[in-house]
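Backbone shapes recur. Consider a single case.
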Amino acid sequence: ATMDDQIIRDRLPLHSTTHQRPNARSRDKSPMPTLRKDDASSPCKKVIGQDATAYYTQSQQFLLALNIAGIASFLLITVFDLFHVDVFLRAYRLPLETFSTGNLIFSLINTINVFLGAWLLDSLASRGRRSDLIGVSGFLFAVVFLPPFFRWKEPLTRFWDGAHFVLSISLYDTICGFNTILLGSLVTDNHLMADKERIWFMASGKIANLIVGLFVARIGLEVFDEENMHRFQRFLKFLASVAALMFCISQVLTKHSIRSERKKEKDEDSIDGELPLDPPRPKKLKLRQAIRDLWNHKNFWSWIKMELLLESQVSFVNAFLKTFVDRLVFDAGMSRDYCDWILSAIPPAGLVCGVLIYIPIRTLGYQRVYPILFAANIGLCFMMVLLADQGSTDLIIFFLAVYPTITGAVQSAGFHLVMSDMVLEMKRVHASEQRFDQPSLAGIFMGVNALFCKPADYILPVIAASSLGDSEISLEESEHGSDHVREILFRLLIWPPLIFSILQWIAWRSYTLTPAKTRQIRDELIRTASDRSKLGNVTSHRST
């Protein structure tokens, strides 16, 4: 073999073992391309994951398609998180007791649905490409985004309002979770993408989200009127249509990218004289084996304990952000325009912080950035406990500007990096046990994460509704500036982050995947792939 051929074979995926002559009767006639010489220097030319997409290089067009789908998702999630609580509690006058009960019901429904969706995704990925689902999943996401904002019948009874709340939110959360896992697994399953490359890819998406997030949040606040929802609903229909179109464009770009790469690499194989490889067929995903693998993954459980608490904090402050601003800032005498600017500026500020946070993550590693976040939140909350109360408007504005921004930024920036490293560690386990045909568990990791963390989304909303209900206070009374309501909301704003940050710092101490360790694991997988490739080449030459 020439030196060029040897370089190519050394970079074959982990599961590539033998060269086979093309077989016209093969169930899958698509040739498996080899990597070009210049792939090592291009951050966009790494092999993807272990589903069928694994056998084709990741082009700029493919990454652009993922970013377009990510922006479309962010458009819908931003508007939903900002308005859905206000719509149900203030526009629909949903009773707090029904709100609390509904949260408990769909927390169970959505937790099961998200896990089943992740299982289905990894099962389908062992037979095809995850990327083929982007268009369908995204279009369904745009459709289910609308029902929560369109009341069923009028005049409505308490039962119909409660049923609308549970069914519409359950449907939205299920499809949103599936879509998030789908897009996330396309990134986390690429074990050859280094942290630097992954950081640049995610940072570029956040910069785009920053612009569109500020734009749609500001427009939504301008047209929202709880007494007359018609203008707001027209805006939502337009937004859902734009998002659906973006998902379709992403799907088209993805398919075109994969076809182009297959054609290019097939042509290069014929020029170089390489025999194409038939893609290996991973084994069927087995539930018991997957559960055993996850059960023995110590770092995964350290992550779950920390992420459960972090998810609860972030989802609560996102859902109740408008309530906190309206009751603790607007009722204190601030103008409506000033409050709207606060609400529209906090999500983009989180994205700016999310981009900047990659600098310390790149230097220190996310493992050391998380404890810094916990310490900052503990100090911030202690300051509020000692120096502020529900009447300290300036300090409350400062807290609302800083706490959601840095907490959401670290969570969003670190999540996919953590998932990628844990999937990488699992692949090392599979390789050490000679399970080279084991299906990827990239979706299952995110699904089990949701299985434990999704119920945490509803812990603090239920506590909030219970606290207000126990005091026999409704949000209608709070609109008249009830000091008692403001006192309760102030406590809900300060005490959960303080308690949860202490618990998170304790849980995170047992996590051991440092940047040095992940580099070592990645090098081991590349060496294993090289050794198996050389063995396959020897076997192939002897047989021919």
